[in-house]
Automatic annotation (TrEMBL), chain A:
GO molecular function: hydrolase activity
Name of the protein described by the UniProt record: Alpha/beta hydrolase
InterPro entries reported for this sequence: AB_hydrolase_1, AB_hydrolase_fold
Assigned keywords, A-Z: Hydrolase
Similarity remark: Belongs to the AB hydrolase superfamily.
Organism listed in the record: Streptantibioticus parmotrematis
Coiled coil: none
UniProt keyword Metal-binding present: no
Domain AB hydrolase-1, residue spans: 20-256
Keyword Transferase: no
Automatic annotation (TrEMBL), chain B:
Pfam families: SpoIIE
Residue spans crossing the bilayer: none
Keywords carried by this UniProt record: Coiled coil, Hydrolase
Domain of life the protein comes from: Bacteria
UniProt protein name: SpoIIE family protein phosphatase
Keyword Coiled coil: yes
Domain PAS: 27-79
Lineage, highest ranks first: Bacteria, Bacillati, Actinomycetota, Actinomycetes, Kitasatosporales
Keyword Coiled coil: yes
Length: 267, 443
């Protein structure tokens, strides 16, 4: 199987640089990293990819069975690492990908030597003595939102994105990322992401880990960042002065700096 | 637009004053008022989403006061939780990446738990240095549109369900059809097996006798009611029979079976034809008529022994069956009368009379069921083939062999087409000519 094509693998930076894998979360594709890649790629070999079902991946490789569990996505990560022959790569996972990275590191310990967890949450739904920030009904509401937007999305958004005069190449990519995503696939990913419970998996993390949380993030609140940090003894917690769930977009410099600092310390 | 003059009197029209009032109102519609009271919601936020400015229209829709919003909450805080998730995972990243978004469907929270479906468009305003400064957002009330969309979705789901249901029903019908076909095939197999048990699969070879048989079943999926057999009695003696039971189908088959095996068993005990038919009559009567369910058959039973000269001596008796036809080597043909024979199984202790004939070389004895003589012929299929026509046929085909007689009759029956609507059995027994005795036709 052509893994590079299947997962739309792209690579930047010096061939002999230490490898950093950037993994996107639910809702977007590898374009999420576009603001941090230029700086990272000055010294590091940066590998990006789209999970099967997202972005410009091969949708024919998608199956509801495999991608209804985070392990299915972790398998994507392992297969990409194997395809590129990576060893001791630093895996940077945003949002749900932070947890996917934990699962991938457990599956292929020699491939992944360190983790950067950007705005991670091992469990989005509140539980006994645990506050994830959401209820099961909230997740249903998100699925509704997804549904109602795919109605207007294709018709209203495609021309806007496609017609972006300043950055036509961006428009093309975004159209693929956001407009062409099969609503059924998005629904499966949303359910898998927001209904997952990976709290028990955190204790298996033994590699050096950086937990990057945002000061204000409705999806991964501060309590959750603290929970992740506490559950992984080998972790360091850095709170970015950023708002929202996507610091790599809202505060790209700060985010990049934090990642670079962690990378330097690994050496 | 430039309005000339300015003196109402110069216009001299009664409508002038109202036009003036409208024009004055237009002039007074300041940009600020246009913003605040626009028919859509406006808000501006800092890049972190904190609301910096919001118009009165949107505040009214949401039932909020300006003070509790401006500088106090972020745009995402005004959304439902699902909308908030959607905002964080799709809306905000996309807006950051392309600087503009249009027509995103979200729901806002209004006071009292009311939800306001809206369509949101946002654009990022950049400073002179290209830095993103703030986000301008317009909000349209999409209650009607959302209701319409949900109706569309509902209908589309219903259609989807209906289609799935139809597919399921079609698959089920197909399965039922296949099952029915399989059942029919299995039944046909069973019927064929049963039918084969009612007649011998092949006639035994009888030294000194040429034999031929033909069985026509009127309907392939129905059991025939005709039967025949030819079997050895030992010591060079042979027995044969051919008959027709009343009715068709499984019950007739059961009657046929009983008849056939009774005849065979009785013949081994005492092969005298009248005695054999008497036994059959007793058995059938006891089995059926005595129980109030009269069933019967017509049958000719006979035996063959051979003379020292190679002739076949035939003794036969008939129970209500059409008489056998004897075709002679010299071209003559006649029925062999079997008077007094009654239907077998109707009356207890029926008696049967014996008929005899000698088959010389070249002679043939033909037994048949009434499917042949009652075949409908003629252009309108209204007349019957009949005894006379069969006799004429016999005379026309006398001096041929048993296989040739059956072959000729089979050809004749094929010509009847759908006029042959009943089962028909034919059995011919003939003594071969001496090889040294050439047939008349071959001279």
């Amino acid at each position: 199987m052509d893994i590079r094509g299947r997962n739309n693998v792209t690579v930047a930076g010096p061939v002999d640089g230490p490898v950093v894998v950037l993994a996107h979360g639910f809702g977007c594709d590898q374009n999420m990293w576009r603001l941090v890649v230029p700086v990272l790629a000055e010294r590091y070999r940066v590998v990006m990819f789209d999970y099967v079902g997202a972005g410009r991946s091969d949708l024919s490789a998608w199956s509801a069975e495999r991608y209804s569990a985070l392990d299915g996505y972790a398998q994507d990560v392992v297969e990409v690492c194997e395809e590129l022959g990576l060893r001791d790569a630093v895996f940077v996972g945003h949002s749900v990908s932070a947890m996917i990275g934990v699962l991938a590191a457990r599956r292929a310990p020699r491939r992944i030597g360190a983790l950067v967890m950007v705005a991670p949450s091992p469990r989005y739904i509140d539980d006994d003595g645990y506050r994830g920030g959401f209820s099961a009904e909230d997740i249903d509401e998100l699925l509704e939102s997804l549904e109602s937007n795919y109605l207007g999305w294709s018709a209203a958004m495609a021309p806007v994105i496609m017609g972006n005069p300043e950055r036509p190449e961006l428009g093309q990519e975004l159209a693929n990322s956001f407009c062409a995503t099969d609503p059924d696939i998005a629904r499966v990913f949303a359910r898998t992401t927001f209904l997952s419970d990976s709290r028990q998996d955190l204790k298996d993390v033994t590699v050096p880990t950086l937990v990057l949380e945002c000061a204000q993030d409705v999806i991964a609140p501060r309590e959750v960042g603290a929970f992740v940090h506490a559950a992984i003894p080998s972790s360091r917690l850095v709170t970015l002065p950023a708002t929202g769930h996507c610091p790599q977009l809202s505060a790209p410099e700060t985010t990049t700096d934090a990642i670079l600092e962690f990378l330097r310390e690994l050496r | 637009m430039c309005r000339p003059g300015g003196d109402p009197e110069q216009v001299g029209s009664g409508d002038a004053s109202s036009e003036d009032a409208a024009f004055a109102a237009l002039l007074e519609d300041s940009a600020e008022d246009l913003y605040d009271s626009a028919p859509c919601g406006y808000l501006s936020t800092l890049m972190d989403g904190t609301i910096a400015k919001i118009n009165t229209t949107l505040l009214k829709w949401l039932g909020l006061e300006r003070e509790e919003v401006v500088g106090a909450v972020r745009f995402a805080d005004l959304l439902t939780v699902g909308g908030k998730l959607y905002h964080e995972t799709h809306f905000a990243p996309l807006l950051r990446m392309q600087g503009e978004l249009r027509g995103i469907a979200l729901e806002m929270k209004a006071v009292g738990g009311r939800r306001l479906p809206v369509l949101v468009s946002s654009v990022v305003k950049h400073g002179s240095g290209g830095d993103p400064l703030l986000i301008r957002t317009t909000v349209f009330d999409a209650s009607d549109r959302r209701a319409y969309e949900q109706e569309l979705l509902r209908r589309s789901k219903e259609a989807e369900l209906a289609r799935a249901e139809a597919d399921r029903a079609r698959a089920q019908a197909e399965e039922t059809r296949l099952q029915a076909e399989a059942d029919r095939a299995r039944l046909a197999d069973a019927l064929a097996a049963l039918q084969q048990s009612l007649v011998p699969s092949a006639l035994p070879a009888v030294p000194g006798l040429e034999t031929a048989v033909h069985y026509h079943t009127a309907s392939p999926d129905r059991l025939g009611g005709d039967f025949y057999d030819l079997f050895s009695l030992g010591d060079g003696r042979w027995a044969f029979f051919l008959g027709d039971v009343c009715g068709k189908g499984p019950q007739a088959a059961s009657l046929t079976s009983l008849t056939r095996y009774t005849l065979r068993a009785a013949a081994l005990h005492d092969p005298e034809p009248t005695a054999v038919l008497s036994v059959l009559d007793t058995v059938l009567h006891d089995r059926y008529a005595a129980g109030g369910d009269p069933r019967y058959c017509t049958v000719i039973f006979g035996t063959v022994t051979f003379t020292e000269r190679g002739e076949a001596a035939v003794r036969l008796a008939s129970g209500g069956h059409p008489p056998a036809l004897v075709m002679r080597a010299d071209g003559q043909a006649d029925y062999l009368p079997t008077p007094g024979g009654v239907l077998v199984g109707i009356v207890p202790a029926a008696t049967f009379t014996l008929a005899q004939t000698i088959l010389a070389p070249g002679d043939t004895l033909l037994l048949y069921t009434d499917g042949l003589t009652e075949a409908r012929t003629g252009p309108t299929r209204q007349s019957l083939f009949g005894d006379e026509a069969l006799l004429a046929f016999g005379r026309g085909h006398a001096s041929t062999s048993a296989p040739e007689v059956i072959s000729a009759l089979t050809g004749l029956m094929e010509g009847f087409g759908d006029g042959l609507d009943d089962d028909t059995a034919l059995l011919a027994l003939g003594v071969p000519r001496h090889p040294s005795d050439p047939r008349p036709g071959n001279e």
